[in-house]
Amino acid sequence: MIALTERTLSGWGGYQPLSCSVAEPSSRGQLRRILDSQVEHPHVLARGLGRSYGDSAVCRGGTVLLQGNADRILSFDRATGLVRCEAGVTLADLIQVCLPRGWFLPTTPGTKFVTVGGAIAADVHGKNHHVDGTFGRWIRRLTLLLADGSERVCGPDQDGDLFWATVGGMGLTGYIVEAEIQMRPCTTAYFRVDYRRHRNLDATLAAMEETDSDYRYSVGWIDCLARGRHLGRSVLMLGNDARAEDLSAQQADHPFTVAPKNRKSVPIYFPNMALNRLSVSLFNEVYFAAHPDRSSIVDFDTYFYPLDSIHHWNRIYGRRGFVQYQALFPPGTAEKGLRAVLETLGRFGLASFLAVIKRSGPANPAPLSYLYPGYTLALDIPNVGERMLEMVRQLDKILLHEGGRLYLAKDSLMSEDTFRAMYPRRDEFLAVKRRVDPGNRFVSEQARRVGLIVTS
Ligand SMILES: Cc1cc2nc3c(=O)[nH]c(=O)nc-3n(C[C@H](O)[C@H](O)[C@H](O)COP(=O)(O)OP(=O)(O)OC[C@H]3O[C@@H](n4cnc5c(N)ncnc54)[C@H](O)[C@@H]3O)c2cc1C
């Protein structure tokens, strides 16, 4: 019998932690035995590194399955860049093994501390969605353990419905045990980044559109407290892979080696009042001033993972935590929708010092995958109780009105009605879930809240 422990779990935002039973299977056999014992484990859910912000890796009354023992890279073909690994392997592990051999992640979220299982389940995206799509596009094959304990292999060309429902399916179709990932060739561990300041939202959006075909990577920081003619002022960070000849002599000696960063840590939860309008506005002034237009060669860690250098940075939001709100708008309504979101933030005075804008390209076949062509704005919103909830309700209305949608990996609060309106392919997903998990063995708090469960 596998040992269960009670743990208080939440997502990265630390919003509303819950007590859950947790197990860490040591082998696939043990995992299968858990799935076989339906009476003891009526509900199960895989959990990666808990970097989703809300309650998608939390399951009250079920067994949350950790993957600390599923962290092996099973094979890596350095000629083709194809990696086969267990789902608990992290993106940091993949970089460590593949980068020195000239292969990088085909796409990556803003932290490398996520598992392959979590990256597939959320179908994560990076700064290069407009060019390279999501993580799911680079998965050649998956091995899943289904609710009845059976093992199933699927891929884009093998049981495609199950494959695409699992990509972006937030762990609700089965337990991913293994994946094959196509890495992308690179010639250095560095990127050529152009930093460009823009004075307002119109200029920011125009610049993103104009530069789309010139840069593989595109991301911007937005000053969400700027008002009036400066509303939406930003610093865009536009990047391409650096070539060997772009590097300094010192870098060129070891083009795939980046000195490890001195990681800082936030050792305690900050008091709830530490992040207020004044402190965020000061931060924003300093950040904007510190980023004049310039071009630099920066290593992958600096460009893709600035927050990873601060361990437990989420504690600056205090014990009440925060929610993340990632809004996607189609191109036709993006300017209007983003303006309304920024104005609403300003009215409520609930400032987010991390406000990130990205451009997205075509959607993939996965029914729950988040992105379609448009612009996304991701905001961290401190949990100040009812005022935060009221603001989120108003933001939801804006999104619904402008044809926008929220990202499941970031969501903590979306209602079932809102989810149904934002994800019109929900029934296609549920048809697959009905086929492989009619009894809702795989369930999360988020699935219960947004109605991603099979009903009879
Ligand atoms: C600082 C930061 C920056 C981020 N930036 C981005 C970004 O730029 N783009 C983006 O897309 N996301 C981003 N994210 C979100 C993050 O990439 C996703 O939430 C990702 O899913 C987290 O992976 P995880 O391993 O921590 O999974 P968890 O958060 O533990 O779980 C997420 C989901 O995956 C499921 N899951 C995990 N393992 C398995 C498995 N083996 N089988 C089946 N289901 C599984 C869980 O059940 C859950 O539903 C960011 C998060 C942080 C904290």
Short description, anyone?
The chain is α+β, with helices and mostly antiparallel strands and 456 residues long. The protein is built from 14 helices and 21 strands. The relative contact order is 0.15.
Give an overview of the whole structure.
The protein has 456 residues and is of the alpha+beta class. The protein folds into two domains: 73-186, Uridine Diphospho-n-acetylenolpyruvylglucosamine Reductase, domain 3 (2-Layer Sandwich), CATH 3.30.465; 190-416, Alpha-Beta Plaits. It has 14 helices and 21 strands. An eight-stranded antiparallel beta sheet has the order 16-12-14-13-19-20-18-21. A five-stranded antiparallel beta sheet has the order 5-6-10-8-9. It has a four-stranded mixed beta sheet with strand order 1-2-4-3, with no helix packed on it. A hairpin with a 4-residue loop joins strand 5 (73-77) and strand 6 (82-86). It binds flavin-adenine dinucleotide. The site of flavin-adenine dinucleotide has 33 residues, from strand 3, helix 3 and strand 10.
